[in-house]
Structure formats: C-alpha cells, structure tokens
Amino acid sequence: MSKPRTLDSHQHFWRLSRGDYAWLTPELPTLYRDYEPEHLLPHLERCRIGETILVQAAPTVEETRFLLALARAHDFIAGVVGWIDFERSDAPDVLASLSADDRLVGIRPMIQDIVDPDWMLQTSLAPAFGALIAHDLTFDALVRPHHLPRLLQLARRHPDLRIVIDHAAKPAIALGAFDDWAQDIQRLARETSAVCKVSGLVTEAGTADRDALARYVDHVLACFGPARLMWGSDWPVCETVCRYDEWFRVSERLFACLSPSERAAVFGDVARRTYEIGEWAVKQP
Questions:
Q1: Which of 56, 116, 137, 229 has the fewest beta carbons under 10 Å from its own?
Q2: 283 in a domain, yes or no?
Q3: What is the tens place of the pLDDT at every residue in 104-163?
C-alpha cells in the first residue's frame, strides 16, 4: 500500500540530554521533554500523513548529524533541514560533508535569534550561500516581519538561491499587526521565487481559532498561490497552543476553498518539489 500523499513540511525532534538546545528550559514545561519519532507517529497515523520534513532546532552541526541519523532510521522522514555556521571560513566544506547524505534538503540559520537584523546581508557569508546553491539545497529563512526587506535584498543578491520562508515570517497575530507584514510578504511573493510555509501560526496567534488565523492565511494564499505554499505543523511547538490534530483540521478548513489539486499542492506536492523529494528528486542537468 502506498503512503498517504500528505506531507508535513515542518516538524522537530529533540533529545534534551544532547545539551545543545539552549532555548529549551523548564520555563517551557510543554516543550521541556524529549520529542522523538515514537511520539509523533500516532499523530501522523490519525491525520493520515505519510511523510515529514525534519527541521533543526539547535545551532550545531552535531544536531544536524543526529537528525540525519533519525532520517536514515525512519522512512517517514523524507528530508532534513539542518544547520551550519555561515560565519566560519570552512562553512562550504562542512556543507559538502553534510550534503553527502541525500536526506539533507536544506539549511536553516536561526536568524530570529541573531541580534543584528542585517546579519544575512554580510558579504562574508557569500561563500556559504554560494555553497547552498552549488549543492542545490534550500535556504530556510527563520525570520520575523522586520527581516523581510532584508530577505528581499538577499534574494536579489543571490537569484539562484531557493528560499523558503518559515512560518510566514511569524506575523504578530496576537497583537493584530498586519499591514507592514502584509506589504512586505506581498512584495517578496511578487519579486522573488520564494516559497512560504503555513506553519507556526497558532503559536503567533496564541489560539487555533480559525477566524483569528484566516486573515493571515488568506493573505499568503493570495500572494503566493497554492503553487508556492506548503503546510507544516511546527510540532511539537504547536503543542503549546493546541494538539497536532487540531491544527491539521483547522488547516483543512482554512484551505477548503481550494480545488483537490490545489489542496494536494499545499499539503504535500509543493514541499516535495521545493525539497526535491520523490519524483522531484532527479536534479536537472
């Protein structure tokens, strides 16, 4: 029997004893525990989700190797978005070593935690970005709304860089902030080939209420269209607000206006194409 076609484009695993999750503290009781494949599988089975993209949650190469080992051990993990230190002179060599594992599909620096809002525009990072392009890996942009004009500059500087905007750039939904984020998202969609993840929004909203989320989801849908949107759970972070299953069902309602083929795009096929998984894995000459 073939796997269900739905793919979760953004989920995490972590093991606290590894010691490289500085942001995970007892003050986050829902998250301050191990989350491993056996904890996610029941959710995937209930929602009939066949594959996932496993995304880094620690700024260490060691964690990326840990995630790649999990991917080799579990067929449902279709790809890993890892981490490298873009600032090191040997970043291209580290990336070359990691990319020998074909489960590596992208790299994500934790830009939201970097104090300098212009960090991504440093000319010293050009070799790392060049290596991403050379190895045909995505740049997953973990950014907030104020980073979006910088991300547009980065896209112009590296037009061959495949950019994925994580969590729709984390709009401040709980505060009702919309206009500036909406304008910058629209410009990125119009002027670049970036793809946007519909993930992490329940955390920014503090609720899984459809009406609280609809304005933001409708906007990214209008800007990017179903051909450039991918759904993700951001599990287990979403558990601080709602269960995996609840976010998935709310997401189905948010995209109920789409045709079957458009829903298939958002809930799997865009992620497969972007991360070059399955039938999309054959690289173009």
A1: 116
A2: no
A3: 999 999 999 999 999 999 999 999 999 999 999 999 999 999 999 999 999 999 999 999
Q: Is residue 202 part of a domain?
A: yes
pTM: 0.96
In a domain, 1, yes or no: no
Length of the chain: 285
Give one word for 12, left, alpha or beta, with left for phi > 0 and alpha for psi -120 to 50: beta
Looking up residue 125, the CATH number of its domain turns out to be 3.20.20.140
Q: Which residues contact 76 (CB under 8 A, 6 or more apart)?
A: 3, 37, 41, 44, 50, 51, 52
Question: In sequence order, which ranges of the chain are alpha helices (DSSP H)?
Answer: 37-47, 61-73, 91-98, 126-134, 148-157, 179-191, 201-205, 210-224, 244-254, 260-264, 270-275
Q: Which amino acid is at 57?
A: A
Query: Cα–Cα distance between 129 and 117 in angstroms, integer?
Result: 17
What are the CA-CA distances from residue 131 to residues 92, 113, 143 (Å)? 5, 23, 21
User: How many helices (H) and strands (E) in the chain?
Assistant: 11, 8
What total number of domains does the chain contain? 1
The DSSP annotation for 98-137 comes to HTTSTTEEEE---GGG-S-TTGGG-GGGHHHHHHHHHTT-
Token duo for residue 183: 């304008």
Task: Give the type of residue at 122.
Answer: Q
Q: Which domain holds residue 164?
A: 6-278
